[in-house]
Amino acid sequence: MRKPIIAGNWKMYKTHLEAKDLVKELKEKALPAGVEVVLCPPFTALATVGEELAGTEIGLGAQDLFWEEEGAYTGEVSPAMLRELGCAYVIIGHSERRQYFGETDESVNKKAKAALRHGLKPIICVGESLAQREAGETNQFVAGQMEKALAGLAPEEIPQVVIAYEPIWAIGTGRSSSGADANQVIGMIRQTIANQFQPALADQVRIQYGGSVKPNNIKEFMDQPEIDGALVGGASLKAADFYGIISYQ
Ligand code: 13P
Questions:
Q1: What fold characterizes domain 5-246?
Q2: Which end of the chain is more exposed for a tag (fewer CB within 10 A), N or C?
Q3: Mutation test of ligand 1: which of 212, 221, 246 has the most ligand atoms closer than 8 Å to its C-beta?
Q4: Does residue 76 have an active-site annotation?
């Protein structure tokens, strides 16, 4: 059985003081059972959020990392730095990083390997553009992103990996995928992992849907057999909305 995982990707929102307030508000509510919850604040708020989360069941994640151990890489953050702050997860290859910051399938692969080497679970993001969807290229494109992201991983690392299927046209637009469409692509992603590794390993990988997930549509996604959680942007920035999402049951 795969335990559902719902993560809040705060993107470039919340100073560390604002972050503290948001976590405090979230902590006032009882955490629903049966779902793993993860918060991914900006780097500058990781320490603060980590301290606030101490003693709770809510996990901490970063939004990116660099694959080198250490060195003269101005502006970058290493896996060990994230681990020391208590991160268990790290988002890799978000479409915004691919679009604005030159992230490629190759750098995603290097980052995934570096994360796993340091005991961080990567949340690897894949997803097609509107033009690709309209041209009927979704499956082929997403399968290609998947194969390149996981190339060269050891089989025993596969169950540690989380995939987030985020169609680019659904991010921040209020236009989410339908549950059935997301389930179809996510099933295809699982099949890709099964082909590249083994079906028994693919069955253990948690695959999230992301893109305009809100309290009023989360259940449609969670009811789908292939969908194991959500990666939430905008609706993770308000305690009431995020709580509405994590308590979907
Ligand atoms: P929204 O939930 O704001 O559409 O963002 C989704 C996302 O990009 C999460 O990583």
A1: TIM Barrel (3.20.20)
A2: N
A3: 212
A4: no
3-state helix, strand, coil split of the chain in percent (to 5) is 45, 15, 40
- φ, ψ for residue 59, nearest 5 deg: -90, 165
Give dist(CA 138, CA 141) in Å, integer.
5
Residue carrying the six token digits 């953050």: 77
Q: Name which of 213, 210, 36 is nearest 126 in CA terms.
A: 210
Domain spans in the chain, listed from the N-terminal domain onward = 5-246
Distance 9 CA to ligand 1 centre (A): 7
Active site residue 166: yes
pLDDT at 48 over 90: yes
Rounded Cα distance between 209 and 226, Å, is 10
Q: How far is the CA of 70 from the centre of ligand 1 (A)?
A: 30
Average pLDDT over residues 119-127: 98
**CA 128–ligand 1 middle distance (angstroms):** 14
Closest CA to 95 of 106, 82, 108: 108
What global pTM score does this model have? 0.98
Mean pLDDT, the chain, whole residue set = 98
Q: What is the pLDDT of residues 136-190, one digit of tens each?
A: 999 999 999 999 999 999 999 999 999 999 999 999 999 999 999 999 999 999 9
Q: If residue 206 lies in a helix (H) or strand (E), which one and from where to where?
A: strand 206-210
103: how many CB neighbours lie within 10 A of its CB? 19
pLDDT number for residue 128: 98
Which two tokens mark 141? 């494109």
pLDDT score at 32: 95
